Amino acid sequence: MQVYFRQRWQDDRLQFYLPNVTQFTLSNRFMNHIWKPTTYFLNGRRSKLHNITVPNQFLRLHSNGNIYMSKRLTVHARCPMRLSRYPMDSALCPLYVGSFGYTTKDIVYRWLKDAPAVDVDSGVMLSQFEIGEIEVKNITRMNRLGEISILSVYIHLNRAVGYFLLQTYVPSYLIVCLSWVSFWINRDAAPARVLLGATTILSLAAMGITIREGLPRVPYATALDVFHNLCMVYLMAALIEYAAVNYFTKLMPKEGGLEDDEDEEEEKAEEVSGPPPLKVVLADQEKERERETLLEDKSEVIDAEDPSISYTQDCPRLFWRCFIGNFEYRLKRVMAADPEAGNSVSNIDMVSRYAFPLTFIIINMLYWFLYLYNDSDDFFDTEYIVA
């Protein structure tokens, strides 16, 4: 971060008296010839003074020996963070200021009382954080030299969740919902259902690798890891569900191939009761001939009418009934269809259509409640111990 670091101290040796002069500004060369408190940032990793176009610092001397020094610095400091609630976490970043070699016998640091200790520019914005409350303290610590005086600044940072909602949470929700489409696919369409399940799993796995690239390798699970693993469990469960459907509702006959349980029961019933009577077979053949005759008559009527009128009157109406799932229309379609070409639905699929979304919604409500409204955000102990 970039700061304007200002210090003020009293040096009676620099008192002066000049008529109509109470203060004057000194050049940078004069700074090397006066006493300074050797201030540094205790938890700073690296810091630098801006030197373009000239060293960005100045010194102002008052007649009573009061010295005011200001510098423009860029400071990189360590900020301990606990990422267990990432990306809904908060951070308390400290900055410690003290003397490099002097103890409290030589110098004591205090925040100015007649001005704000820390003034943040209103135009400062962070890409992933929102700057919250800023606290300042005066503390003392013991080291090998003795007791030292330290000024501390605590900056509360709240992570913005909007970016993660758009880039991680919403796509993950869509992938999970896409995996539930397999519950409406015919259980005999094994390639389609397996391919859909494998594709969603691979997509979520690739997304998980991407979102972890910018994170430190912490030894505990973050909130994002919990959500990602939850979605992965549901994708795996959707794929395993089809394996259960295929195992419990299908049997492998001796001749080879898959058969429905219901079809096998019908075959066993036929074997016990013997072949159907000739009367029933003739009746079925007669119904089939009547159906074919009806379809031929209907096709002749459609051919005799004007095609444009037929499409204008029938197609939109039939499309609308099909689109809204009209029960009467669907019933007529089922009655008119071939009874031997039905699309049987497994009971496991029917239960999964409601069980998967319902449980996923409940678990997500608990997830967001625990991570958003749980105020037990335990920060690291930010009291700096000087070695």
TrEMBL record:
Transmembrane segments: 161-185, 192-211, 226-245, 354-373
Residue ranges of domain Neurotransmitter-gated ion-channel ligand-binding in the record: 1-159
Protein topology in the membrane: Multi-pass membrane protein
Residue span, Neurotransmitter-gated ion-channel transmembrane domain: 168-368
GO molecular-function term, one example from the UniProt record: transmembrane signaling receptor activity
Disordered as annotated region, ranges: 256-275
Main subcellular localisation: membrane
Entry's family note: Belongs to the ligand-gated ion channel (TC 1.A.9) family.
Name of the featured protein: Neurotransmitter-gated ion-channel ligand-binding domain-containing protein
Organism field: Pomacea canaliculata (Golden apple snail)
Source taxonomy: Eukaryota, Metazoa, Spiralia, Lophotrochozoa, Mollusca
